[in-house]
């Protein structure tokens, strides 16, 4: 067995050595071996990251990490889990495992016997994964710095390279031999794959002979990486899961550790001319599109065979993933102790950009902390979508406000609601049955992403059919925290947890949980000066940005409680408020007030409600409603556009 220092660089050798031990529990032993090595999170971090390391510098068949969102799930695929290898000189045979591999390998003096009755077919699940959408630059930079500090340099690939025969392990389900005895028939000679004398290692893809030029992404190939947000960059990956096939879901954040596979023979690109004469032209084109979508060049979309994984509750590299760990509890304790000071600093920052409007800053803090913590039937509990009205007709204001939000939260996206965007963008995912994949939409986002909708950009005009559907999709995610994925013949609801902030001049055309009218305390506004003052405060250390980021990331994860005494007091207060006029405190108003008090408690570092906080929340709500009543709102240009 390879040495302990080789488990990152030579994982397949370790897998094969455990398989050679002929223990029926060898697969569990493999899991145990790597689980033991990765139990120390420092060891986990020392594995090179596919997110921040150029693909060409990573050693093939070594362990890598990939932090991603599950964008799609392909059909299970079958592969040779066990196959027989014959020695040419001695005619002796032995078995090898194909687990965690795409290509079966043997040395020059060996043959792979694809017709052996000892070959065994297994299955695995393939996930199409993309970098986490809307991840802000400071998060990427933090991960990149951590990765550079922790990662050990990989072994020189040439130090362990040998000439080997390679054969794709995937089984074509339509092949008669695949269904009968788990063997593969194409390109075989007497049931064995042979090596040309004096030639290089033989490489073949699933369906055709491998073409390195094509696999490298030649000029005649186009790959749609299917990112939810147009224009985002990063590496997509085909992630192959073995032992936890049913535990992952679409739009989930996961970090995988697995064996990197980038053999050029895995790519399949074809066109109608190459496939002519193989049958009906339409069926041929459908087959080509599916093959191209499922077998892109590994130089652009590498394969990752999962050995370990961990679901992510957040994506901040400076915060422990498990807040119940020793480090996590210490961080939470310190954050709660300093919550008052941190909140004051955050309030000052936001009020500067909001033209010294402290009340609007208070509500924006509550919005940034809001998160769905439970569901009751169709209702998502904990959300607080926010509509800020009275926004100045100045693009610099929106840009400055979003730039600050971008520095505070880990994931955010600004969507100007222009007529062009509403009519042309694809917001909801849709199944493409020709390519047999899920085409992503902009609302396919991971939990606790902050979506900022700029309604001031919407001018009078006509929404087309797609624009109306997009408007309905935005309404669904705001009201019910769900996205309807379009499967042509039916739609399927996927729950989400996305904070939505709507900026508008008048009341938004979209439904929101809370509306606050901006009331500037400055007569003349110079946004350049505002940005300068904010940046100066951040650079001077007057404002601790790291603590604010931790504050916004950690507090929504805490458990919130309400004692029996406080519950009784709140209920009595509700009954008392309705005695004179039931319309002064409707059940909906009461539920909204409970959300406000919960978020206000958390923002003050108190995970349980007190009478003082309840009264403070009531005063905030009274001031907000008075401001709305006194504000003279102009006719919304957005409402005109929607008519």
How would you characterize this protein structure?
The longest helix is centred in the last third of the chain and has 20 residues, at 611-630. The radius of gyration is 29 Å and the shape is elongated. It is α+β, with helices and mostly antiparallel strands and 643 residues long. Helices cover 35% and strands 19% of the residues. A hairpin with a 2-residue loop joins strand 12 (374-376) and strand 13 (379-381). The strands form six sheets. The chain has a five-stranded mixed barrel. The chain has a five-stranded parallel β-sheet with strand order 15-18-21-14-22. It is built from 19 helices and 22 strands. The protein folds into two domains: 4-151 and 165-311, no CATH class; 326-630, Rossmann fold (3-Layer(aba) Sandwich). Its main location: nucleus.
In short:
By secondary structure, the chain is α+β, with helices and mostly antiparallel strands. Helices cover 35% and strands 19% of the residues. It has 2 domains: 4-151 and 165-311, no CATH class; 326-630, P-loop containing nucleotide triphosphate hydrolases (Rossmann fold), CATH 3.40.50.300.
Name the quaternary structure. single chain
Largest β-sheet summary: 5 strands, mixed, barrel
Number of strands: 22
Shape: elongated
What is the CATH architecture assignment of the largest domain? Answer: 3-Layer(aba) Sandwich
CATH superfamily of the largest domain: P-loop containing nucleotide triphosphate hydrolases
| Mean pLDDT over all positions | 85
CATH topology of the largest domain: Rossmann fold
Name of the CATH first level of the largest domain: Alpha Beta
Q: Bin the strand percentage.
A: 15-25%
* Proportion in helices: 25-40%
What is the CA-based Rg, rounded? 29 Å
- Poorly predicted sequence stretches spanning 5 or more consecutive residues: 154-163, 173-220, 270-279, 633-643
Give the spatial strand order of the biggest sheet: 1-6-9-11-10
